[in-house]
């Protein structure tokens, strides 16, 4: 902790500094080459990588196979790596123990930086400590906003899941919902639990959690259908990922229920479902941005000693609500695979 305190006094590299440095490194073309900054020349509009030495960055997430949300995270990370002259080693596993082994493999490969998710922080604690002992900087993204500082992680990029859940709870109040079913697709995932707990904290009426097996969409659909049939008073189904929202739409139809569907997170199909009125709204945490900033932050730290938030504050990438009112503004980016 002393390391972070000393650097916090020396540096003031908050998010604007991170983004400014990124823009310099990817600067637009125009004017004489001599009039450009070194950063603009190194990583300009022609798509050239930064002129800094080649580095190797590992990203380890808790993504399940074929999860479109994590495709966005990885795409952002890949774009940042290409810009930063970095080799990206991406790996994932839903198991906390296996994620820890992937971190150890990255340490053994002597990477220059590691980006991790902390969905199950206790499982990752020892591996992160080993990375820090090897003097490898570690940043967090997406999950673990309550744990990153205690585990001596340099920076964190994501949303505060509890605050986001509370925001959704208040939104549901304004929409007149009476009975919310919050569907948790991975038991023990701290981020998912925090989302539903946040909804319950601010939603004025009835909230209940439903635990489902997120690895089996047929089972998810059946479980939601059964609960809707058992209790017709449920008028709002909240899911914690876009694929589960689309599945819940089918459950509502199967049950003959009148419940609305709201969700956390986006993908291209979910955007179309919002446009069509099948899904009421979504909460966007900008996964592409999380992947991009995590990789870019490690490059900035290695290249220039920059780090955001002073080592004490996370960089928040959400929440933002997407509904029929503003979905067209998001749809053009979703079509490109970046939202």
From TrEMBL:
PROSITE patterns, per the entry: PROKAR_LIPOPROTEIN
Matches recorded under SUPFAM superfamilies: Periplasmic binding protein-like I (SSF53822)
Family annotation (Gene3D superfamilies): 3.40.50.2300
Record bears the keyword Signal: yes
InterPro entries in UniProt: Bact_Solute-Bind_Prot2, Peripla_BP_I, SBP_2_dom
Pfam families registered for this protein in UniProt: Peripla_BP_4 (PF13407)
UniProt entry tagged with the keyword Nucleotide-binding: no
Signal sequence region: 1-25
Cellular location(s): Cell envelope
Domain Periplasmic binding protein: 57-301
GO-annotated molecular function: carbohydrate binding
One cellular-component annotation, GO: outer membrane-bounded periplasmic space
Keyword annotations from UniProtKB, A to Z: Signal
Family stated for the protein in its record: Belongs to the bacterial solute-binding protein 2 family.
Protein's UniProt name: Sugar ABC transporter substrate-binding protein
Species the sequence originates in: Wenjunlia tyrosinilytica
């Amino acid at each position: 902790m002393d390391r972070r305190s000393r650097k916090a006094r020396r540096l003031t590299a908050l998010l604007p500094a991170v983004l400014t440095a990124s823009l310099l490194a990817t600067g637009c073309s125009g004017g004489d080459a001599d009039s450009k900054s070194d950063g603009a020349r190194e990583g300009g509009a022609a798509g050239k990588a930064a002129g800094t030495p080649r580095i190797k960055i590992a990203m380890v997430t808790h993504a399940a196979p074929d999860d479109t949300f994590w495709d966005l995270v990885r795409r952002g990370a890949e774009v940042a790596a290409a810009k930063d002259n970095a080799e990206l080693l991406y790996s994932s596993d839903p198991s906390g123990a296996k994620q820890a082994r992937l971190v150890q493999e990255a340490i053994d490969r002597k990477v220059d930086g590691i980006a991790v998710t902390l969905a199950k922080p206790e499982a990752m604690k020892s591996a992160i400590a080993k990375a820090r002992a090897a003097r490898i900087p570690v940043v967090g993204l997406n999950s673990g906003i309550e744990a990153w500082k205690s585990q001596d992680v340099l920076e964190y990029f994501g949303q505060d899941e509890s605050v986001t859940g509370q925001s959704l709870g208040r939104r549901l109040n304004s929409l007149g919902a009476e009975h919310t079913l919050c569907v948790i697709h991975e038991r023990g995932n701290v981020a998912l639990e925090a989302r539903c707990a946040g909804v319950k904290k601010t939603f004025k009426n009835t909230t209940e959690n439903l635990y489902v097996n997120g690895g089996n969409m047929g089972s998810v659909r059946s479980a939601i259908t059964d609960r809707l049939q058992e209790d017709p008073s449920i008028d709002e189904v909240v899911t914690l990922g876009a694929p589960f929202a689309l599945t819940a739409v089918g459950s509502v139809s199967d049950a003959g229920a009148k419940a609305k569907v709201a969700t956390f997170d986006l993908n291209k199909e979910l955007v179309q479902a919002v446009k069509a009125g099948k899904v009421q709204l979504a909460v966007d945490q900008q996964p592409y941005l999380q992947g991009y900033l995590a990789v870019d932050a490690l490059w900035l730290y290695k290249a220039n000693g920059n780090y955001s938030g002073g080592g004490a504050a996370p960089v928040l990438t959400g929440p933002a609500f997407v509904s029929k009112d503003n979905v067209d503004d998001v749809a053009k980016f979703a079509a490109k695979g970046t939202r």
